[in-house]
Input
Amino acid sequence: MATKSLGFAVSVTHLFGSKSPPKLCVFTLRCSAGNGERPWKTSGARLMLEDGSIWKAKSFGASGTQVGEVVFNTSLTGYQEILTDPSYAGQFVLMTNPHIGNTGVNFDDEESRQCFLAGLVIRSLSISTSSWRCAETLGDYLAERNIMGIYDVDTRAITRRLRQKGSLIGVLSTDNSKTEEELLKMTHSWDIVGIDLISGVSCQSVHEWVDTTKQEWDFSSKGHGETFHVVAYDFGIKHNILRRLASYGCKITVVPSTWPASETLKMKPDGVLFSNGPGDPSAVPYAVETVKNILGKVPVFGICMGHQLLGQALGGKTFKMKFGHHGGNHPVRNLRTGQVEISAQNHNYAVDPATLPEGVEVTHRNLNDGSCAGLAFPAQRIMSLQYHPEASPGPHDSDYAFRDFVELMMQEKNKKSEPQISTVSSLDA
Ligand SMILES: NC(=O)CC[C@H](N)C(=O)O
Output
């Protein structure tokens, strides 16, 4: 039997002189476990970052050359839900958890109809899969969906770099004919800021959603025995948002991102949900306009991108954070109750609360950096969260937000059904 050994070798090569910014540096990480044999064919890949660093790795999934923004995700589990979260369109997701792929992939954990992310960056790809739900390996799953992945790369060193420099554009390539200079040039020829990524992930037609959370996974939903009709704007909506709303007794109509506000209002919904979605909220003014035309007319709930669009529609500003929040273990304080929730997060932008009009209340704060994590504007029946109460993957602490939304719709319905008091003046008598 081969002796088990874990070896690391890091080589750093400076290809340019110190006066030529940015310097090209090559980082190689060699690892061997057991006899080093893997049950798949290995081939090389390079990840070039816009700061000039090159990370040599092994490829799995699809091959090719792909540009995207590199972000790190601190979730310990749930890589399949992360891979199918449409909000990652245009991004390479680097998992800080070093061991990925051990449960394979299954038929239940898909968060959307396909993988929209640019690629997956991991430290170590599990050589075996073990789960009663496993339908195939992570490598086969990515290859079938034409998504690139790399492993045997120092994810910790890249994460430290992203924390110091902020999110970086990267190019991942399995093409040996491309020179390092060409790859570096590619990183400078694309940016995630200012482009509409929502139009590439939203559904194309109006449809009904009926699936609820499966009973064995449901832990908290209690409907009110009453059905509320919710129109859900699909800016890249995660399926678990829809499942949680359905589990709380909502009848859901999903509409594309370009669906006019006037058509939504004609449907006379009890509430409107603005979903999560990829990219820069300032690149989709049409969506902000839609939100503006709905505000104040029915109760609304914004999640992540939906929260940012609401912030802009109220007259506030959004800004790009240094490296954003991506993970399933981020603390948030609910300022109304004082309670701390451990939350699932995935965003690079945030609303600046100082730019919001009077009457808008910051309801939640991210405890890592104090950024705004939730808003409410009771006068207009608005609530929103910057993070993910649907928690797929992630802890379930924030699930109550769906109940709060149902209560907001119920209050509105009760208000409408109350008898109207009209004052009769003496002149009318
Ligand atoms: N999950 C989301 O909706 C992400 C929102 C937005 N794309 C951001 O990065 O901030």
Summary: The longest helix spans residues 400-417.
